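Field log, afternoon session.

UNIT: design team B
ACTIVITY: writing a sequence onto a fixed backbone
BACKBONE:
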């Protein structure tokens, strides 16, 4: 049974986390209250220190993400309180192409980095999402920015999705960057054995940049 508008208002005040969990399942009912009532702070952070936009973007809820952005009351670059991830970083890391595209179209910056200088490209590369990675690069995202630990997107993808590695290499990713253990992407791929032989071959073929 769906809650009435007044019941949702009470629930939002007393149990905001539970209401947020239900947004994805009942967006037309709950967002009707959250978006129309101007006194409700849509940038408020909840139990896991993330905003509503962050959660909807990460969960791939395009309709709710569009509705939130359409209010003009949400901060599209609002970072979480854990690692400083933006909604775009969250969507990219979760492989949510729909909400990633929605955020980009609404002005999300592809260069905004976390406190450790990780970008959306870095997260998409690490988690092995080639389609999201191509989308970000298509919006002029840099594919070779090292983070505070010296890790580039290629280093994060070193032992993962071959398509991601291929995309990064085609964009000119350098293969001579080393991580904290002083290993290059090629050395990491080689250490994983024949399962990464294709990646090793491609990296060796292109050589250091």
């Amino acid at each position: 049974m769906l809650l009435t508008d007044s019941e949702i208002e009470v629930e939002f005040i007393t149990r905001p986390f539970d209401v947020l969990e239900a947004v994805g399942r009942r967006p037309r009912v709950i967002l009707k209250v959250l978006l129309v009532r101007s006194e409700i702070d849509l940038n408020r952070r909840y139990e896991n220190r993330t905003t509503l936009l962050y959660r909807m973007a990460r969960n791939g809820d395009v309709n709710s993400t569009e509705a939130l952005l359409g209010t003009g009351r949400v901060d599209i670059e609002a970072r979480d309180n854990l690692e400083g991830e933006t909604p775009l970083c969250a969507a990219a890391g979760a492989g949510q192409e729909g909400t990633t595209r929605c955020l980009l179209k609404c002005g999300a910056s592809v260069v905004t980095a976390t406190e450790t200088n990780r970008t959306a490209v870095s997260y998409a590369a690490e988690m092995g999402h080639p389609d999201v990675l191509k989308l970000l690069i298509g919006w002029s995202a840099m594919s070779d920015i090292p983070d505070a630990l010296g890790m580039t997107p290629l280093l994060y993808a070193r032992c993962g999705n071959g398509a991601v590695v291929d995309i990064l290499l085609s964009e000119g990713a350098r293969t001579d960057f080393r991580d904290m253990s002083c290993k290059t992407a090629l050395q990491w791929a080689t250490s994983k054995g024949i399962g990464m032989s294709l990646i090793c071959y491609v990296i060796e073929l292109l050589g250091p940049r």
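LOG NOTE: The two ends are 61 Å apart (CA to CA).
NEXT ACTIVITY: expression trials, pending approval
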